[in-house]
Amino acid sequence: MANPMSFDAEFDVLVIGAGGCGLVAALAAHENGMDVAIVEKMDRVQGNTVLSSGSIPAANTRFQRAAGVVDSPDVFVEDLERVAGRHDAPELTRRLADISAELVEWLVDNADVNMTLVETYKHIGHRVHRLHSPPSRRGSDLVNDLLKTIENRDIPIAYGNPAVDLLISPDGKVMGAVTETKTGERTAIGAKAVILATNGFGANRELLARFCPELAAVPYGGSVASEGEAIRWGEELGADLANMGAYQAHASLADPHGSLVTWTVVEKGGVIVDHQGTRFGDETIGYSAFAAQELEREGPFYVIADTRVRDVTAGGQEEYAELCEHGGVIEAPDAASLAQRLGMDPVRLAATLDDTIAAARSAVQDQYGRKAWGLGPLNAPFTATRIGPALFHTQGGLKVDMDGRVLKQQRPIPGLYAGGGAACGISGSKGGLGYMSGNGLLGALGLGYLAGRAAARDASAFPA
After folding, report:
1. Residue 256, CB half-sphere, CA atoms under 13 Å: how many?
2. For a tag on the chain, would you pick the N or C end, based on fewer CB atoms within 10 A?
3. DSSP bridge partners of 131
4. pLDDT at site 4
5. What would the pLDDT profile of 149-188 be if each residue is shown by its tens digit?
6. Mapped to the 3 state alphabet, what secondary structure does the chain carry?
7. How far is CA 140 from CA 19, 114, 145, 261, 410, in A?
8. Tell me, what's the pLDDT at 305?
9. In b/e form, how buried is each residue of 78-88, taking b as 16+ CB within 10 angstroms?
10. Would you call the peptide bond into 300 cis, given omega within 30 degrees of 0 as the criterion?
11. 389 cis-preceded (ω within 30 degrees of 0)
12. Listed residue (395, 385, 463) closest to 429, CA to CA
C-alpha cells in the first residue's frame, strides 16, 4: 500500500476492472453525477461475463409479468437458500434478490442493454422462468451493449493499465490506486471512492490451493485475468473474507473445443456417461454440482442426447449452434454406431440408453433418482459431445455490506467497494453444490449497481 503526496490524475470514482461488474458500477456512479474512470489490466474486455450466457436471474420483473410468470423476491430467496444452504452472507442473498428486478429493468432502460426473459429453459434451482439474457444468450453481447453506453457517456477506459497497488491515506482511507503499463510507466490516480471489479481468483493456482485445494489441478474455463488482486489487497488492509471455499464449476467443458456445452442439452433430456458408456448420477442436480461427481472419476465423459434435443437447443443458443457447426456434436444412427465412434462397449452403452429411455417413459424408476426428462425419451439418431469438468469462477471474496462497501471487522473500509468475483458470493460456503444458474452475474452486476450508487453518495459527502 502506498501513500503519495500528489496524484497524476484525479476522479470522483475509480473502477478497477472493465468486466460486467465494473462497467455497471461506472454507469451507476456516472448517472449519479460522478466523474468516473475505469482501468483495465488486459488490452480488451475479457472477463467472466463475456464468457457467460449473459443470464441474470430476477424476480417480479415487468418482463415476467408480461409473460404471465408469477414470481417474487421471497420465492427467489427460498430457491437460493434451498440450493446454497447456510453461508457467510445470507443478508446479501436477500439484498440481491430484492433489487434483482430493479437491476434488470435499469439495464434495459438506463444502460441500453438488450435483454429478454428466457422462456425456453429455467436451469437448475429456479422454480419459475426468471433468467433474463440477451437474445443471443451470449454474455459478450451484454458486455458490448454496456461498452457502447460507456462510450456514449464519455466514461474513459484505460486498457493495458493494471492496478498494482491501492493508495491509502494516513487515517486509513482508500484514496486511489497506482497503475503500471507494460513499459513500466506508473500513474498515481486519486479518487474519493475505489470500486474493485477485478473478478475472482480462478486463474491463481496459489490461492486455489489455499482456499479450494480440490481445484488446484482442475482445468480452468474462466477468464485468465481472474488472478485475485482484490484478495491480496483486502488482506493487506485486514478486510474480512467470506465464502472462500465456494465456486462455480461446470460439468461440460467441450473437449477439445474449450467452449461450455449448455446444460440445456441435459435439461431437454440428455444424459452424461463415463468413458465406458455408463451413467453415474442424476444430471438434473445442475452443472456445478454434477462437476463434483465427474471430479471423483476418470474422464473423459460424454453428454448423450438426440438430434431433436440438439436442434431445439441450437435453435435458441448461438454458441451451441457454433459447436455443432464445428464438429463438436457428433451424430450416429443408433446406439451401436455411436459406441463405435466413441470407442465404447456397444452393449453397455445400449443398456444405458435403454434404461434411460424406460425411466423417461416412467416405465421404471431412474436408478439415480432423476425425474425431469425435458422433451421426453431420447430417440435415434443419437448425438454425443466429449466433455470434462472445469472451474469457471470462484464464489468467495471480500465481505461487503448491503451496498458493496468492503468490511473490516464488520465496519466499512472508507473509500473501498467491491463487486462480482472480488466480493463474496451467495453460492454457499464451500464447494460447487450451492451454485444456482445466474448467481455469478447477479452478484457481479447487482453489486456493481449497488456499489456504483453507494460510491456516488459517499463521494458526494467527501470533502473536495
Report:
1. 0
2. C
3. 57
4. 57
5. 999 999 999 999 999 999 999 999 999 999 999 888 999 9
6. CECCCCCCEEEEEEEECCCHHHHHHHHHHHCCCCCEEEECCCCCCCCHHHHCCCCEECCCCHHHHHCCCCCCHHHHHHHHHHHHCCCCCHHHHHHHHHHHHHHHHHHHHCCCCCCEECCCCCCCCCCCCCEEECCCCCHHHHHHHHHHHHHHCCCCEECCCCEEEEEECCCCCEEEEEEECCCCCEEEEEEEEEEECCCCCCCCHHHHHHHCHHHCCCCECCCCCCCCHHHHHHHHHCCCEECCEEEEEEEEEECCCCCECCCHHHHCCCEEECCCCCECCCHHHCHHHHHHHHHCCCCCEEEEEEHHHHHHHHHHCHHHHHHHHCCCCEEECCHHHHHHHHCCCHHHHHHHHHHHHHHHCCCCCCCCCCCCCCCCCCCCCEEEEEEEEEEEEECCEECECCCCEEEECCEEEEEEEECHHHECCCCCCEECCCCCCCHHHHHHHHHHHHHHHHHHHHHHHCCC
7. 10, 12, 9, 16, 36
8. 98
9. ebbbebbeebb
10. yes
11. no
12. 395
Q: What is the mean pLDDT of residues 20-40?
A: 98
Q: Which residue type sits at 331?
A: E
pTM of the full predicted structure? 0.89
pLDDT tens figures, 253-308: 888 877 889 999 999 999 999 999 999 999 999 888 899 899 889 889 999 999 99
Q: Do the Cβ atoms of 441 and 56 come closer than 8 Å?
A: yes
**CA 224, CA 222: separation in Å to the nearest integer?**
6
Local confidence band at 1 (pLDDT 50, 70, 90 cut-offs): low
Distance CA 202, CA 215 (A): 9
- Provide the residue count of the chain: 464
Q: 155-181 burial string, b = 16+ CB within 10 Å, else e?
A: bebbeebbbebbbbeeeebbbbbbbee
Q: How distant, in Å, are the alpha carbons of 80, 95, 157, 454 from that of 91?
A: 12, 6, 33, 17
- Residue 460 banded pLDDT, cuts 50, 70, 90: confident
